Amino acid sequence: MTVGLPDDILHLVCDELSEQRDFATLFECASSSKRLAIPALSALYRAQHAAPVKGGSESSPTMAERLLVIQKWSILWRSIVLSSLSKTLFPYCKYIKVLDFRDLNYMFEDDMFRGQVAQTFFGGDLSKYHKVQDTPSKARLRGRAPLLDRTSIIDAIGEDVTLQTHMAEQITGPILASALVRWIPRLPRLRSLQLWDGAALGDERVANLITVHCPEFDDLSIYQWDGDDTDHKLSVFIAGLPSNHLHGFETISKTGIAAESFLSLNSHADSLRDLKLAIGADAVPHLGLLKGCTNLELLDIVDGSGTIDIEKTQNDVFLEMIVWLRDCHKLRELNFTKFLSAAALLAQVLGDQNIRLEHLKLDSYLVKDQRDFHLALTHQTNLISLNLEGNSDTITFDDRSTFVDSLSHLKELRDLKLVFRSDEVDLLTDPEISTLVENLPNLQELYISGYGVTDAVLEKMSGLRSLRSVNFFAVTTFTIDGLLDFVDKLGPGNQGLSVVIDMADPESALTEEEQNLVREALVAKVGGRLEYQLLRDYDAFYNSDEDSD
């Protein structure tokens, strides 16, 4: 098969298989001949971070199968570590692009990683990495096995592996503050750090080492960072990098990021494309300081407190953010979570002809107060994905009409998620859902809440020729005839359709036999599947009005 093919073609073929995550074929190539072994193995290990066994992600319905996954997972990591010690035939670690210590930590945490699996992993040359926590005397008396000292183990493994992973472009996971100072000079191709604890950046030498040794570094993600001066330390790190180098920056949980770091991010205003911020109440009033970052393509803001309405309490900040977002002409994705002023803010931004979003997510807003936001949405005709979540209490006929009419303008939508809570009257019922379905012919994924949803919606929905997933998080009264008729009208574009009915009205529930008929019809027609659940706490749902009275 490989006779006559030059080596560069073999490498290209293996690279393509790696891009497609076709690990089985790459393994067969590696096993088939000496000529194919090196390109196949190098492609395999460049993509090892995406292997199906990593993270224990492989579905395992039985304990035996679960154990097999953990064994494969540990063997993969053992081969990587052994290769760094020159104990394998091929230098697997030299091919690695992503050094995912987060994944290694998950493996050590897994309950199945004990007994024989752990003994095998830490056997032979890896015995030096077997480090345990000090076990209290009472636990020792009870015969409990000491817990692994995961932090020390990962640090020791990382110390050896990073000596050989010169191709590594990304490091993720729980890394000690002292480790980056040792490891960075060994990683000339490092582009990205995804840190569990931002304290690893607390040493002021880190930014300078990255500047000197990692000219392609452009992405930073931090999960958490506790301390009183974290904002200052983070700002010093950001400012210490070469100007306009960061393309992506993310804080995921509590990090203390606030005014100083926001100002430092402006030193990367020309390069910064993706900005994801999980912030606290103390940072919200300083968001206007980011006004220089106008080349953003993605902006994601999560207000962890969910308590500050800057339109009402910090109007100067509210106005600054309007100006800032209007200047972000390259913005394509915008997400707000628990940000109480988001809808009012976007009402002043989305109408700007220079703002052409493709993805928008917004929660925590009152439908009745945001007519201007809904009208502004009509200008965003490039939207592919829209996720709106909020409260629909005290809505009027005009509120509902404006909402549905505005969304009906978004003809390019592929993915629509609408989740609204109400103690009074639901925003979405048969007429509203039917209107949306009729006017959004390109929908592929639909997740929708509501009340009193019947077969009439299914009849309209059968016209969505590209629908692949529909989730009714709504009180439904579908009949067996309505569902079978819906399935019968599906076409080739609906292949693999997933139908989830999560809140079926118990008074009109399908029998087990009827559910199975629909499942069989879905499989036969488009290879699809059905999940069917009754409304939980039926009495509480239907008596809520009486209880409130």
TrEMBL record:
GO terms for biological process: SCF-dependent proteasomal ubiquitin-dependent protein catabolic process. GO terms for cellular component: SCF ubiquitin ligase complex. PANTHER family: F-BOX PROTEIN YLR352W, PARTNER OF PAIRED, ISOFORM B-RELATED. This is Uncharacterized protein.
